[in-house]
Amino acid sequence: MKKIFPLLLLCSLGAIACTQQQKETSEMSRFVNKLMDEMTLDEKIGQLNLSGGGDIVTGQARNSNTAEKIRSGQIGGLFNIKGVEKIREIQRVAVEESRLKIPLIFGMDVIHGYETVFPIPLGLSCSWNMEAIEESARIAAIEASSDGICWTFSPMVDVSRDPRWGRVSEGNGEDPFLGGQIAKAMIKGYQQDNSYSDPTHIMACVKHYALYGAPEGGRDYNTVDMSRQRMFNEYMYPYQAAVEAGVASVMASFNEVDGVPASGNKWLMTEVLREKWGFEGFVVSDYTGISEMIAHGIGNLQNVSARALKAGIDMDMVSEGFLSTLKKSLDEKKITENDINKACRRILEAKYKLGLFDNPYKYCDGTRRSKNIYTQEHRDKARRIASESFVLLKNQDGLLPLKKQASIALIGPLANTRSNMPGTWSVAADLSKPTTLLEALQKAIGDSSKIHYAKGSNLTEDAELEARATMFGRELGRDSRSHETLLKEALETAQRCDVILAALGESSEMSGESSSRSNLDIPDAQQRLLKELVKTGKPVVLLLFTGRPLTLSWEDAHVQSILNVWFGGSEAAEAIADVLFGEVNPSGKLTCTFPKNLGQIPLYYNHKNTGRPLATGKWFEKFRSNYLDVDNDALYPFGYGLSYTSFEYSEIRLSSKEMNFNNQLTASIVLRNSGSFAGSEVVQLYIRDCEGSVTRPVKELKGFQKVTLQAGESREVSFTVTAEMLKFYNYDLKHVAEAGDFEIMIGTNSRDVKTAKFELKEN
Ligand code: BGC
Prior knowledge:
Elements: H1 4-13, H2 15-38, H3 41-47, E1 49-51, H4 65-71, E2 77-79, H5 84-97, E3 105-108, H6 121-125, H7 130-145, E4 151-152, H8 176-191, E5 205-209, H9 228-235, H10 237-244, E6 249-252, E7 256-257, E8 260-261, H11 266-276, E9 282-284, H12 292-296, H13 301-311, E10 316-317, H14 321-331, H15 337-354, H16 366-372, H17 376-389, E11 391-395, E12 408-411, H18 437-445, E13 452-454, H19 463-468, H20 483-495, E14 499-505, H21 524-535, E15 540-545, H22 553-558, E16 561-564, H23 572-580, E17 647-649, E18 653-654, E19 658-660, E20 664-673, E21 679-689, E22 700-709, E23 714-722, E24 728-729, E25 735-736, E26 740-747, E27 753-761
Parallel strand pairs: 1-2, 1-10, 2-3, 3-4, 5-6, 6-9, 12-13, 12-14, 14-15, 15-16, 19-27
Antiparallel strand pairs: 7-8, 11-16, 17-20, 18-20, 20-23, 21-22, 21-26, 24-25, 26-27
The protein binds beta-D-glucopyranose.
Beta-D-glucopyranose (BGC) binds near residues 80, 109, 207 and 287.
């Protein structure tokens, strides 16, 4: 019934569209059936093998080991190979020299852009601008597809509440609803209408299914364990939203779920993903995710590979467990031929949908490269989008925007780097291209004056830590001069100027995969530098580079302005100049909580109340849920971000104080730009279910609108509230709304809200 219902609905919407779709599906089935009839068992298993192809070199690709495997039908796809010539050459081996001439699929981690790089995903999410996010994915798809890529390992939608985990930089923060909206926008950008009718449409891969963002202690790849209720209410929605958007593929996560690694977890991969959510694409393991189940302690390579296939993994990334053991497992009846056929069919269907059987070189048109990649148009858009991702955390006395005539000292280890600008996971970026901050600021103020630069300190005192934090060509050129010499030069530079811009924080590789931290301060050497700069008494702007929330209590108390610029992509430096000098008014809002100190972690806005909540505004009360030494509040809460202008919210007006399951109500506020700049505000809607059959969060994001107003302008902003929005997973994991009282909150961030009440009544 589950599968028939959407089909019926579709048919009633348009018989023609339905017939057309059915026709295409049956043509595809016929084609794939025929092909599979001709395939040997080995060739079918070969399709399930995804290889890194590390030995492939343009001009010699045909002589590589990988090519030999392709010839003998042992590879179904390759990933992270850059360059259309190379890809074309290797595709030729597949379609001219292998027995059945089955084309390969070429994947890549096109995470936040290709050569035109957009802000790291966490930064991008802070724009709360779904059109911009979709556009960034569209441009990434246009560029990647012009260079031979037809499949991206994006979007990454792992909800995370732990900034110690380095991969918070790759996701959309702590909120499942917002994460779901972003997942949909990204998939639309990559896959468009899911028809792949155009060579710029590429397949997306939502990852890392599931719960990868909740490792114990924030340590990457670590154990995850949570109740099913927490899973479904707080972590799963973004994956499900991706499936609803028609995502072509899903990547399994490294972690375990309920004591079984995701790559071998049948409940996750088949019962939830396919049977509950209706996913029809293919599932790929993460990098060696299958063979890692040996270390997880659930069997040898043969057993874990059989388990992965049975669980519902269709493609094995790098482990070669499928390639080397599935035949044996079949002989020993650990798996059936049908298990192999199902997986093989899904891979072949993906290739069919992409149009690779019609034209294996569809993504290998060399003429598109020069026209479509890193174009001025794409870069201009990336610059605008980057400026929307920055979050103004503090701006005392309106220090920002700066006047171009001011004499400016630019100080810090991030002030003069090219390679660190794009941020982590920008594998296709040309690291020699981004403008440094120093160059961009100098260009913005013109020749009449000069930016005064000093490095001021190394990234960290610890040279080994700096080496780990600047891998993959992201060196910061460690300065061999002593701290004292660097500091002296910086202070002399600062003394000559009116205002200090301190470009400090993390290097780009200090976040990302396998970059967990146990300390979230700005690194030692830089913190010392900042303290000395503040002591000069000159106004200081902290330009914060970071891939995660940092602990900034000292900075918030002592530095006049803080602009968090994350890692803004290839055009980051120009975008920073735009915001610093007021060409663009910042409008980013945090999608992850900034804690006051490390011990508060996990700290997130949509927490439960507990039986002993601390009264609002209090710090400590004995026998309440609190700490002796720090209050429960965030330094900067979810949804927070300032502007050069100010916004005023009216009280909430409800169209009715009650609704039932069949109707809806409208909640409105009037927003006024009460400052003197035009600006954009993200108006946020939160709801609290005051009395549930299970405990419910103190608030949950249910809607948002980004509104642009001229100085002095007002506008009514309305949200429709439906019973659907009030649903949650109850004790029996049923998705239900329950009658009762609700609080509705609208505001500028998750802390500062206006509140009203309504009741949901039985019909
Ligand atoms: C990461 C994935 C990535 C894959 C392929 C893994 O280490 O976890 O996010 O897509 O490598 O590069």
